[in-house]
TrEMBL record:
PANTHER family: PROTEIN TWIN LOV 1 (PTHR47429). GO terms for molecular function: kinase activity. The modification 4-aspartylphosphate is found at residue 38. It comes from the Archaea. It comes from Halapricum desulfuricans. The gene is fhlA. InterPro entries: BAT_GAF/HTH-assoc, CheY-like_superfamily, GAF, GAF-like_dom_sf, HTH_bacterioopsin, PAC, PAS, PAS-assoc_C. One of its GO terms (biological process) is phosphorelay signal transduction system. The lineage of its organism: Archaea, Methanobacteriati, Methanobacteriota, Stenosarchaea group, Halobacteria. Residues 127-200 form the PAS domain. This is Light- and oxygen-sensing transcriptionregulator. Pfam families: BAT, GAF_2, HTH_10, PAS_9.
Length: 636
């Protein structure tokens, strides 16, 4: 065979191998796209080569050219499934070989240039059987319809189609696949399918179909047209997957999203309204009534009530939303209320709960403590016929309970100033504090005379110095919590003002609206005297002081009546009128002995302590004096 002539004829690459084994290796290693082999009785055995190739590559293109025309050679070649046989009797053997190569080798090479498909190495029968098994056993439903027949009947369905739909092959072959449709199948989806088929285009939809037993399932359907060599649609192949579980999960997520959105809308309205109530209410009774009215007006709430907690008697007294009642927390059925109060956590109610707390007529109920920090002022009970009070609902209700509790605390804090009776408490803090450290450093060189709480919570301590004034200032400045030590008077009776950064006990008292009366201290302890409006707040303050300092001893506790205009009330009224600078000037003048005669300090020293010029100090002081006298003479 003329290799160079064949290469020119096919305009391709030709490799010549004369060794049998080397030629076979090239074929088996997939180094070539086809083979043209000679057959010569005394040379290259083309029939043996063909037989060897067919053992491993049944469909590999082999063109056989015998050197001598022999009928037995042709018969053997056909028996071994030769691709093409070119007898030597051809007028132009080279041209005939080139034609066969172009037809069987070149075209195949172009089709397989990207990915080699080993399935083509099988016999046609084996390849067909393998493809049929793959279709039959595919995990997705498959159906083929004949597009050339009226109503496009099914001509094939696989095993998964039977499993998914429940219809057997005998029931489906020869009929249109619309038998899967039913009452809830979406018309717009079926129209989308029909429009795509009419346009001979592929389509993919998710639609409701029905099993043979009438139950609904969600079908993910993909349909693709199959065309013949002329481009005409001859068949449609459809793939089905039962995606019911996925769709149900999607619907569940959507339902949950809608439920949460409705809940969010309700919550935003409820929280906004209750927040406005607690901010604008002028009494605890006002908070109770308005909060219960708003919560009870929610469509999902059947009723609500608020009870006030009496820690001394261990009672809950209803204050809004229910008839007057007292619930003894030690009585049977009161356990949920006791749990809510003692653990400051939500508790669930049932029909066995005592008195007004019990659920009725199939209600679900919860009780929420009204708390501020460590103090529980009462409980909020909420009931519903439609709500089970899940996590989202209870989280909101507990937040409302804390909001109402904070409002009650704020109102009771104001009550300390205006009430006719207060609880006066004295405690000793036996712990290492900045004040005990200060007393230890100063020693006998100075005597603590007075304490004022500045507007920012810092303490101003006034010391009359008996010893070395510089040593006192140096000792005070050595305490980390001391922000400043200032000499206010340095003549016959030296006075030093020491500013101590806001101690924890000032913050605690302020949180609960307590009025600090006196602060006394020595190197061993700090004694506080303060007043509060309620027993709950007093207990909470002592508990928090114990948490902050450890060793706290209660040394005084009694109720006392206050005059109509209390000292605290008058002071609060004056402080509201004064600016910060005016109040500071008045305080410094008072504690430094500026108003005594002879004066223990002068304006220049006080102005310097405020970092202002004397004229500015006197302006602040005179303005403060005028406001103070106005309140005294003209105030009610």
């Amino acid at each position: 065979m003329d290799a160079e002539g064949l290469e020119r004829a096919i305009q391709g690459s030709v490799v010549v191998e004369t060794d049998f084994a080397a030629a076979l290796d090239r074929v088996l290693d997939n180094d070539v796209d086809g083979a043209v082999v000679d057959h010569h009785p005394s040379g290259f055995d083309g029939i043996a080569f063909l037989r060897a190739v067919r053992q491993d590559r049944p469909s590999f293109p082999v063109v056989l050219v015998p050197a001598v025309e022999d009928g037995s050679v042709a018969r053997q070649a056909v028996e071994q499934n030769v691709t093409a046989y070119v007898p030597t009797s051809e007028t132009d053997v080279l041209e005939s070989v080139a034609d066969q190569v172009e037809q069987h080798v070149m075209i195949r090479s172009e089709a397989d240039s990207r990915v080699r498909m080993p399935i083509s190495d099988r016999t046609a029968e084996e390849e067909q059987r393998l493809k049929e098994r793959a279709m039959d056993e595919a995990p997705v439903g498959m159906a083929i319809a004949d597009a050339t027949l009226p109503d496009e009947p099914l001509i094939y369905v696989n095993d998964s189609f039977e499993r998914i739909t429940g219809f057997t092959k005998a029931e489906t072959i020869g009929v249109n696949c619309r038998f899967l449709q039913g009452p809830d199948t979406e018309i717009e989806k079926t129209r989308e399918i029909r429009d795509a088929l009419d346009a001979a285009e592929p389509v993919s939809v998710e639609l409701r179909n029905y099993h043979k037993d009438g139950t609904l399932f969600w079908n993910q359907l993909k349909i693709t047209p199959i065309r013949n060599s002329a481009g005409e649609v001859t068949n449609y192949v459809a793939f089905q997957q039962d995606i019911t579980e996925r769709k149900e999960a999607e619907f569940q997520i959507e339902r949950e999203r809608e439920r949460l959105q409705r809940l969010l809308d309700r919550i935003n309205g409820l929280i906004g309204d209750v927040t406005e109530i607690v901010v604008t209410a002028d009494s605890t009774a006002d908070v109770y009534e308005r909060a219960v009215d708003r919560i009870g007006s929610d469509d999902a709430i059947s009723r609500a009530w608020i009870g006030e907690y009496d820690p001394g008697a261990r009672l809950v007294r209803t204050r809004a939303g229910s008839d007057d009642a007292e619930i003894d927390l030690a009585s049977p059925g009161a356990e949920p209320l006791a749990t809510a109060i003692d653990e400051q956590s939500l508790a669930r109610l049932d029909d066995s709960a005592v008195g007004p707390a019990g659920c009725r007529d199939g209600e679900n109920g919860v009780v929420i403590p009204l708390t501020y920090r460590r103090t529980t002022y009462g409980v909020l009970a909420v009931y519903s016929h439609t709500q089970s009070f899940d996590e989202e609902e209870t989280t909101v209700l507990q937040a409302l309970g804390r909001s109402i509790g904070a409002a009650i605390n704020d109102l009771l804090s104001k009550q300390t100033v205006t009430t006719d009776a207060v609880i006066e408490i004295g405690v000793e803090i036996h712990d290492n504090t900045p004040l005990t450290a200060l007393a230890g450093e100063i020693g006998d060189d100075a005597v603590h005379e007075n304490t004022l709480v500045r507007h920012d919570g810092d303490l101003l301590l006034l010391f009359e110095v008996d010893g070395d004034i510089d040593a006192v200032v140096t000792a005070a400045e050595g305490i980390p919590a001391v922000s400043e030590a200032t000499v206010l008077a340095s003549d016959d009776a030296p006075v030093v003002e020491v500013a101590v950064e806001r101690p924890q006990f000032v913050s605690t008292l302020s949180e609960y609206g307590a009025q600090l009366a006196t602060v006394e201290f020595d190197p061993n302890a700090v004694e506080l005297r303060f007043s509060v409006a309620t027993e709950q707040n007093g207990r909470a303050i002592v508990d928090e002081l114990e948490d902050s300092y450890g060793a706290v001893e209660l040394v005084a506790y009694h109720e006392s009546d206050q005059p109509t205009q209390t000292r605290q009330g008058f002071r609060a009224a004056v402080e509201d009128e004064l600016t910060d600078r005016q109040l500071t000037a008045l305080q410094k003048a008072y504690v430094s002995g500026f108003f005594e005669w002879p004066r223990r300090s002068d304006g220049d020293q006080l102005a310097a302590s405020m970092d202002v010029v004397p004229s500015t100090f006197y302006q602040h002081l005179r303005a403060a004096e005028k406001k103070l006298l106005t309140s005294f003479f003209e105030g009610s």
